[in-house]
Amino acid sequence: MKSVKHWIDGALADGDTSRTGELYNPATGEVSGSVAMASAADVDAAVAAAVAAFPAWRDASLVKRAQVLFRFRELMYAHRDELAAFISSEHGKVHSDALGEVARGLEVVEFACGIPHLLKGGFSEGVSTRVDSYSIRQPLGVVAGITPFNFPAMVPMWMYPIAIACGNAFVLKPSEKDPSASLLMARLWQEAGLPDGVFNVVQGDKVAVDRLLEHPDVRAVSFVGSTPIAKYVYETGTAHGKRVQALGGAKNHMLVLPDADLDLVADSAVSAGFGSAGERCMAISVVLAVDPVGDELVQKIVERVERLTIGPGDDPASEMGPLVTAAHRDKVASYLDLGVEEGAKLVVDGRETPVAGGGKAAETPGFWLGPTVLDHVPVGSRTHTEEIFGPVLSIVRVGSYEEGLEIINGGEYGNGTAIFTNDGGAARRFQNQVEVGMVGINVPIPVPMAFYSFGGWKASLFGDTHVHGAEGVHFYTRGKVVTSRWLDPSHGGVNLGFPTNK
Ligand code: NAD
């Protein structure tokens, strides 16, 4: 049985051993190990290590920081299979999908390797007589990242490569459901030459989160998780004077216009709805089918869903794995009966899906639920509006583009959305009118590249700054403007007037 610990000041740390959590293999339902649960004192130890490491790291040259990042990138790439195996064994997602999240995370490391360019300031010569002005951006100090279970490598990598490249010291609090990836990443940072204490990991739950939120030495907090916790983190962190970006939940709609290529739409809806068992904040969970395409589209979706192979994440034949915990599987499965009670038609029942090496999903040990399709889901029903975060695709029939747009804009969340059409004018209208942070046009999961920023609108983001890209650099630094005068020849003289440009 494995025992997952903290990583503080360049070494594994037991911390307070009075509280631990259980780790599971979601494919079998068996306990696979335990994870430490940090006390407030453990968090204090990690923050103290970061505080001590910060001054030297802040003063390391940009070139030196970039060199460490390049080495980290190479090590992460070399260990990607090992990392993916950890993810798959604790999260349940299939190995190829876990490799995909590592690859997308590495893009942020690659972006951060360009830190000498990203931190170039502005310089204006001669803003007044013999006076120059220039702007610089400096690191904040100790910053923290609190991350969800669904991307145990990629979501932390949205944060720490840029934070560290900017010269900060970082404390990561990963999800207690799949914590092993964080320790491999910590070891690789050390191997890459990052000084001890610049990257620390505290395992745990609310106790650790609350201490990070109130700790006076933590300057900024990046959070990704569900909306209620994102709101709590934002409110608590800012009340303690911290800079906070808190990304929340989602309910992403795909709007299908009648002129769309329905085979492309069906492929996209199935890929985006059931990849990673729907446990993605950018998953498509609602298809808005504009009349008259609904019946034909549902038929094409069902054909594809019935061909999917459901099985353990470490089996190369599996296309979709189990859900993360029994409790989460039960919650997701409860929407199947609820959907029917609310008036939807259960077209594919994921409880009946055969699991490779087992029986029906509902009867196989492990946290299984197959891909489920609910058609004619009523607008505004709980099945339509609530984040289910599992392999449940709802089809909502709508009469027009306008009706579809109104449904999307009327929703609580604003993370991702997509329109499928061959009409460029309609697509352009959509990108302009839709109240969502990330928009796909014939692209079902429009996750921005590392050099753009990732983030939603409305209840999908609390704070002003999205993650990575230019906004990430901005979040982890603060600006300073210097105005300098070198007198030639040197002379003085008192002047109480406000400095103006002469
Ligand atoms: P979660 O909110 O339960 O947990 C996220 C983090 O908060 C974890 O580290 C957890 O330990 C901590 N936490 C949980 N309860 C807490 C509490 N009461 N007080 C303080 N901290 C607490 O989320 P999850 O179930 O791990 O992840 C799934 C959620 O994350 C979904 O809602 C999904 O949409 C969202 N998500 C959003 C994005 C995005 O970019 N917007 C990306 C990935 C996941």
From TrEMBL:
Pfam families in the cross-refs: Aldedh
Aldehyde dehydrogenase domain span: 18-482
InterPro entries xref list: Ald_DH/histidinol_DH, Ald_DH_C, Ald_DH_CS_CYS, Ald_DH_N, Aldehyde_DH_dom, MeMal-semiAld_DH
UniProt keyword list: NAD, Oxidoreductase
EC number: 1.2.1.27
GO molecular function, one term: methylmalonate-semialdehyde dehydrogenase (acylating, NAD) activity
SUPFAM superfamilies hit by this protein: ALDH-like
GO biological process: L-valine catabolic process; thymine catabolic process
Gene3D superfamilies with a match to the protein in the record: Aldehyde Dehydrogenase, Chain A, domain 1, Aldehyde Dehydrogenase, Chain A, domain 2
Cleaved signal peptide residues: none
Protein name: methylmalonate-semialdehyde dehydrogenase (CoA acylating)
Native species: Nonomuraea pusilla
Lineage: Bacteria, Bacillati, Actinomycetota, Actinomycetes, Streptosporangiales
